[in-house]
Amino acid sequence: MATATKSRASNATQLDLLSQPGTNGKANGRTRGKSNGAHNYDESKIKTLSSLEHIRLRTGMYIGRLGSGADPDDGIYVLLKEVVDNAVDEFISGFGTKIDVTIDANHVSVRDYGRGVPLGKIVECVSVINTGAKYNDDVFQFSVGLNGVGSKAVNALSTDFRVVAYRDGKYAEARFTRGKLIGEKKGRTREPDGSLFEFTPDPEIFEEYDYNFEYVERRMWNYACLNSGLTLVFNKQKFVSRRGLLDFLSREVDDSALYEPAYYKGQYLEFAFTHTSNYGENYFSFVNGQYTIDGGTHQSAFREGILKGVNEFYKKNYSGVDVRESINGAVAVKLKEPVFESQTKNKLGNTEVRSWIVAETRSAVVDFLHKNTTAAQKLQEKINQNERLRRELNDVKKKAKEVARKVSIKIPHFKDCKYHKGDKKRGDESTIFITEGPSAAGSMVAARDVETQAIFGLKGVPLNVFGKTKAAIYKNEELYNLMTALGIEDSVENLRFNNVVIATDADYDGFHIRNLLMTFFLNYFEELVTSGHVYILETPIFRVRNSRETRYCYSEKERNQAVADLRNPEVTRFKGLGEISPNEFGQFIGEDMRLIKVGVRSLAKVPTTLEFYMGKNTPDRRDYIVEHLI
Q1: Sign of torsion, CA 467 470 476 479?
Q2: Which domains, ranges and CATH numbers included, belong to the chain?
Q3: Which phi and psi angles does 8 have, rounded to 5°?
Q4: Over the Cα atoms of the chain, what is R_g?
Q5: What is the pTM for the complete model shown?
Q6: Which residues make Cβ contacts (< 8 Å) with residue 359, sequence separation at least 6?
Q7: Which pLDDT tens digit goes with each residue over 181-238?
Q8: Beta strands in 189-252 (DSSP E)
Q9: Residues pairing with 290 in the sheet
Q10: What is the pLDDT of residues 306-343, one digit of tens each?
C-alpha cells in the first residue's frame, strides 16, 4: 500500500501556561497567591531572553514539530531545508550552480559556490535575528526565508555549528555550540567562493532522531526540478533537472499519463499538467521553492486558468469538474513578497497574484493545445468521458440520496465534533477516527474530546472498491455515509476534518479493514493522502502493571522491557480496541497519541500497488505470502 511514516506525539505546539487566578476552579487565585507565594508577580519575574535562547525555549514557534525523523515534516528536515534554501537563493540570484550536501552520523554539511557570506558579518548573520541580506531586494528578490531566522534557528538548535565563508581568496570561520560563539578564524584560502555550513541537531532538543535518506533525496529532487540547471549532490548522488517541472510531473505520473504533459515556463510562472485514469485532482504547488501542501491563491488561479484556456481553445463551455477530473499538475511561482497563511508556509495568501496567473496560464494552455494536436484530441476525449460519467453518476447519486433520506436524517454510527477544518478556533486539531465495531467506537466516544474529535463506526468489513467506478460509493450505504461524514462528495477541498485517522484493531482483521479503507481513499480521493490528511492510529497491544506502576506497550520488545523492569508484573494482551476501557483510552487519543502519517512515494505506482494487494491476482499474492511467510 502507500508508505507510512511513524510519528511520535507532535511537539509542534508548546503551550505557555502560566499559573493564573482561579484556573483550577477552586479558591480565588489572589488568596491562594498570598498563602503559598506562587503569585509574587513583581519586577524580578520579568525575563528578557536573547534571540537564540528564545529559539531553544520555544522551538515550535520557529521550526514547527520536533519529531524523530520518521516524518518528512520533522524538525531535523526543517533545519536542513533552512541551510539548503540559503544555497539555492544564491543560485536563483545567479551565483553558483552546484550544492554539495552530506549527512554522516547525523552531522550535516552543506557547501555552496555562490558569493559567500560577507566576511565581516559572518557571526551576526548566523546568530542575530533580523540580520541578513534577504530584506534587501537588490540582493535576494525571490526568497522564502524572509524572516531572517533560518540559519539562526539551526545554530541555536545544534550541539556544534560551523560556518565558513570564502570570498576573493580570503575566508572567515565561526564555531558555535547551542548558539554560543566558541571560536573565530580568518585568513587566506584557495577555496572557490561560497559558504560552508556544518551542524549536528541537538539531542537535548530532538531526543532520539535519525535522518531518513529517502526523504532527503526526495527534497533534493524537488530542488533540482524547481531550479533547472542547478546540480545538487547528496552523499555522492547527483540530482539535476533540465526540464524543470516537466521532469517533476513526468516522474510522478510515469506511464499513467493519457497524453504528453503540457509544459510552460515564464519569468515568474512555471507549470505542467496532464490527465490520468485515476479519480480526483492532484496538484503540487510551490512558491519560491517552498512546497505549499495546502495550495493557496496561486494553485486556485492555476486551476481557473486551465479551465479558461481549455474552453477558449475548444470554443466550449465545459464545466470545471469535467475539465479537472483526473488531472495531475505542478505549478511554481516566484514572488517578491509572499504572504503565507501560517508559520509553516503551507498555503499562499497573496490575492493580487490571481489575475496575472489566470491570464498567463490561459494563454499558455491555448498555445500548447494549438501546437500539440494529439494531446488536444486526447484531452477532449477525456473531458467528454468525464462529462458522460458525471451525468451517469448524478442519476445514481439522486437515488442514493432518496434512500438515505428515507432511512435517517442523521448519519448512523457517526458522532460529530464541535470544531472543523477551517475554523479559526481549534480547526487544525479537528480529527475523525474511523473505527471498527460498536465496542471500539463506544470506548472512543466516551474518551474523546467532543470539541475536536469525531467518531465514525464501521458496521462491518468495508467493500473492496478496487477497479470499481465512483458509482459504487452510492450503491454502498457504509461508504456513502463515510463520504458524507467527511464532507468530500463534491470536492476534497470541502474536507470537514484536518486529520482522518484509521483506528482498527492491531490484528489481521484490523489490517485487512485498514487496507480496504486505504483502497477507498486512494481509488477515489487520492488527494486526501497526498496532502497529508490520512493517518493510522497506533494503540497499545499490551498492558504491563503491578501495584505501583502501569505501562502500555506497543510491541513485544516494549512488553519484554516492561516485564524486566517491573516486579511481579501482570501482563494483559489487548485483542481489540473494544477491550480498552474509556478511562484508559483517553490517553491514547490525547496528547500522547501515536499516529502514523500515510504518504505516497509515487502517484504512478498507486494503481499497480492496489492491483497487487486488492485486485484479482490471487495466485501472485499467494506466492508472495508463501515466500515471505515467517
Answers
A1: positive
A2: 63-240 (3.30.565.10), 245-389 (3.30.230.10), 408-539+575-628 (3.40.50.670), 542-573 (no CATH)
A3: -75, 175
A4: 27
A5: 0.71
A6: 305
A7: 999 999 999 999 999 999 999 998 887 889 999 999 999 999 999 999 999 999 999 9
A8: 194-201, 231-234, 237-240
A9: 287
A10: 999 999 999 999 999 999 999 999 999 998 888 887 65
